[in-house]
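Input/output pair, single chain:
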Amino acid sequence: MTKPKYDLENRAFIFAADVRFFCKKLTKSIINIDDIKQVIRSSGSIGANYIEANEPLGVKDFKMRLKIARKEAKETKYWLKLIKTSSEIEDTETIDKLIREADELNKILSSIINKAKG
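Output:
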């Protein structure tokens, strides 16, 4: 039996879309507006940098782009945790799921970086 192909690009896209759907539901306070902007940027940057990594100019470029994607995953987790702490959120299950997914993306990217030659 063959394993299905793992599509990290699609997973990162779905994650960024899920972050956006979640943010649409948040109360638009002065604090939340800036945090929402930050988490939207960083969540989208994970997939964008992963796409760039798949069109590398060389091994160093490949690893650098993956490291940027990993950094953005860590940043997204930070912003999500901050939103969870500072906002009145009824749907804690969704934000906890998003935090776990940001952490999983970070781990996956770390694994790819560690296995990359060069």
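The chain has one domain: 8-115. The chain is about 80% helix and 0% strand.
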